[in-house]
Target: DDE Tnp4 domain-containing protein
Amino acid sequence: MRHLRCTRATFLLIAANVTETWPRVHPALHHSNTGLTIASHVPSTTLSTPTETIALPTTDTEWEAIRLGFEVYGFPNAYGAIGGSLIAVKRFENFTGWYCRKGFAAFNMQAVVDHRLRFMSYSLRSGSQNDKSLFNTSKFGRVCHQRVPLGGCFLGDAGYKLEEAHYNTVHSRSRMPVERAFGRWKNKFREFKSELVQHQPSDMARLIEMSLLCHNWFIDYEDYPDELDLELFPAWMHIGGDFPMKIQIK
Model:
């Protein structure tokens, strides 16, 4: 709980989720199983639930709740906010394509959030891909115009291509949810303040995915404070969906 930085109640709820999912992913535990073996199974068990926890709405009621939530920010008919965030990684032996425009090896992550700051969609690519390229190659980019209710849109910044009736370039506080979501996520999971040091990109991606899942659980279980204490993150974090250096949340 100390390293996960959550309350005991939240930890027990997360443990219950893993326990419920375990039989669908792994065989029953045996007395001969070592602690290392069991620990190695936890990530794959946890990651079997993102389709249930990280997903776009499937009902009109869910979409409507998001639309009403975004009206608070003064933007009508918005059904989500999209942004990008760089996640620094150690330089691989084969580093071609991993260097971002900031000059370091990184993942570029695209994420879509709702008004509650929950992640509804994410896509991870190497740092050399810009936001527009990532959007065009992501599943979300291919299907969002089919999923959003008629006349609705997703909010993004100038790094994304404008799609009439579905995608709008906006500035100011209407994009606050995606900026706040990245800020909360990086503040909660502080390993993302420095380079990820896992040996394989797949291991790094698994860590990122698990943290996004836990982020949503923390919101569902009300384990985030009402007010976010902003921190001055390193300059490389400020791309797309990250916190501006001076921003006040009212």
